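Case study.
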Amino acid sequence: GDSVTQMEGPVTLSEEAFLTINCTYTATGYPSLFWYVQYPGEGLQLLLKATKADDKGSNKGFEATYRKETTSFHLEKGSVQVSDSAVYFCALRGDRGAGNMLTFGGGTRLMVKP
Amino acid sequence: NAGVTQTPKFRILKIGQSMTLQCAQDMNHNYMYWYRQDPGMGLKLIYYSVGAGITDKGEVPNGYNVSRSTTEDFPLRLELAAPSQTSVYFCASNPRPQGNTEAFFGQGTRLTVV
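After joint prediction, the assembly is written out as follows.
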């Protein structure tokens, strides 16, 4: 079945540092890929998405490129802020099967220090 | 905009007790989901529904039941609470059966079984 693997956290960075959170996936067909963010005490919010190979999703300074050849969707940000501290989830939605459900990675906690 | 509303936000149950986690959405979405989030484990799908009157099991359905009598509501029932059901529960909805559509999440219910 479909699966998502992302780097374990926590990731601790200083403000203005460069961020990379790795995400790789296994899926048949042509899945859509997502990054969700969960701020403390809140539910998940969509951060960005990409629907086909070589698409780049971007939002709030975060970017991720859908790489079919390496089955990856790594999240990057050039300069993190304290307010980016959260848990980040990589997810995919396959292009077949009932329910249209998302498959999530284990989440990566990011802590940004001033 | 209310979006996806979950109640209660927190609950402590004793082993063997039962309870219903409520979920309602006001976006007229056909697809609804229940996930549980265990520490460091990402989100696991419990049950889902593709429309009123239709429900199906996800990855971890044991110990839970659902119903979908209306488009808006998708309650999750725990009949005999066990410590293994201590988790954070998220309800989500999706507007249409296309791979790249965004899922909307509630703020979660933190359940502790003692």
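Observations recorded in class. Chain B touches chain A at residues 4, 31, 33, 35, 40-43, 45, 48, 50, 56, 58, 90, 92, 94, 97-103, 105-108 (CB under 8 Å). The mean pLDDT of chain B is 92. We will return to this complex in the next lecture.
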